[in-house]
Design brief:
Layout lengths: L1 H20 L17 H13 L34 H10 L13 H11 L3
Helix pairs in contact: 2-4
Bound molecules: heme C (HEC).
Length: 122
């Protein structure tokens, strides 16, 4: 009885350690469906399609040319390790980062705001 319990306990902790390592962790809340976006979020979605979608998946964490952006603000940290907050995210795309071009001159203030609101739905 005892060895069996011990083996079970080890098995459970191993499984937890492995899923955490694999990044499975606790399940993330789902992204807001596109059909339920508010008008401002929907405008942000358009900005994303025009400027970001060729390099980033919005509804997957799998990388395209850049990292997948699903759950962007639901994680504590960005792929770079910076805290996942508005300042760091907007800084990344306004000034560019690594292979990502800067969008500071391509998007107006309204588009940036709409895009940020949309990114919060992911
Ligand atoms: C030409 C491809 C390309 C486009 C277009 C692009 N990105 Fe990126 N993006 C990247 C790459 C590559 C990285 C990884 C950069 C690195 O850390 O070296 C990245 C990283 C990021 C990150 C993570 C920053 C961090 O600190 O980890 C965010 C957020 C991001 N992009 C948002 C956007 C948004 C929003 C847009 C549209 C306005 C956009 N990107 C357009 C390629 C692109």
């Amino acid at each position: 009885m005892r060895p069996f319990l011990l083996a079970t306990a080890i098995g459970i902790s191993l499984t937890c350690a492995l899923t955490t390592l694999a990044g499975c962790g606790p399940p993330m809340p789902p992204s807001k469906p596109i059909s339920e976006l508010t008008p401002q979020e929907a405008r942000g979605y358009q900005v994303f399609q025009q400027s970001c979608a060729r390099c980033h998946h919005a509804y997957s964490e799998h990388g395209l040319r850049g990292p997948g952006l699903q759950h962007l603000f639901k994680h504590k940290y960005l792929p770079s390790g910076a805290p996942a907050n508005d300042d760091r995210v907007s800084e990344a795309f306004l000034h560019g980062r690594g292979m990502m071009p800067a969008f500071g001159n391509k998007l107006d203030d309204q588009q940036v705001q709409d895009l940020m609101v949309y990114l919060h739905t992911l």
